[in-house]
Structure formats: structure tokens, C-alpha cells
Amino acid sequence: MALTSKQRKTLRGMANTMEPTLIVGKDNINEGLLAQLNELLDGTELVKCTVLETSELTAREAADALVEATGAECVQVIGRRFTLYRHTQRKDVPRIDINEGVYLPPLEDPKEKRMIGRAKNKPGKVAVSLKARTAQKAAKNGLAPAKRAPQRLQATGGTLKKSNRG
Fold it and tell me: Which SS3 state, helix, strand or coil, does residue 37 take?
């Protein structure tokens, strides 16, 4: 699945606040690194990686090799860091809606979607982006939405947190 430019933009924004979780060192790419990357991609879908100076590979070479080995998509490469994305089929982990830029809670039933912040036992709710919810609240109160820095949802230890970093 090739990512569109809008989806890449959304994923780049989500990865902006992340710390690298995978390090390519002097051993370059080996079976242990591939196993660790597959586990990370299955659990979080979006992984930020860094390449140490002692590695023989550049960040672009490492990203291309890992994309080929894991079937992931390269979101961006900047300096010695790169970001990879692969949609997971697991139902017990939070998923990323790459069109809206929000984390969806884990689903037990794939046909069931829930709104972020709602109780788990209320099926049939559709995930709505933070921007859309803010506009809905403003319209309900008869106010125009205030202009402010864009907000993103950031995963922090199993909870969702608003971030004003642009």
C-alpha cells in the first residue's frame, strides 16, 4: 500500500514528538534487529529509528533495507533518523487512522469503531478528529472556533494526551 502525500504529512506530524525506539548500530541490519522492528511495527504501527555514526549505512540505506525486509512504508528520512509505518492486523493494540491523524482504541470486533474518550461498551461510535470535535462544540454553543495552534493526539503510556506542538 503506497501512502499518499496527505497520509505521509499526517504520519510525519505524529512522529515529530516521538523519540527513536530502534537504533541501527555498528552491526548494521541483522536478524535480531528485524525481529525487534517487526514486533514494534505490530505493536505501534509507527516507529522512529536512528542510525549511529559507527554504522556503515546511511539513514536512507538503512530505511530502504528495512522497508524491503519488513514490508513497511518509509514516511521520512531526516539526517540520521527515519520513520517507518506498517498497518497492523492485531486487534488488541491502538491503531492509527492515517487520514485523520488520531489514535483509535483497540478493537475486539473489527466492525466496531468507538469515539476516543467514550466508554468501551458503547459500540457503533465513529472516531472523530480533535479539530472536528472542537468545531462541533463551538457550533453547539453558537461560537466561532478560536484560531489556535493545531493540536495532535499523542500516545503516552496507554493514554491519549493533547499536544500543542506544531
Answer: helix
Residue 96 near residue 107, CB atoms below 8 Å: no
Total residues found in the chain within this entry:
166
Domain extent listing, the chain: 5-85, 95-163
Chain center to CA of 54: 28
Q: Strands 81-85 and 46-51, how do they pair? A: antiparallel
pLDDT category at 36 given cuts 50, 70, 90 is very high
In terms of average pLDDT, the best of 46-50, 113-117, 138-142 is: 46-50
Residue 53: per-residue pLDDT: 93
CATH architecture of residue range(s) 5-85:
2-Layer Sandwich (3.30)
Q: Are strands 95-97 and 81-85 parallel, antiparallel or unpaired?
A: unpaired
Model pLDDT for residues 123-151, shown as the tens digit of each residue? 444 455 566 666 666 667 666 555 554 55
Among 107, 131, 130, 105, CA closest to 118: 105
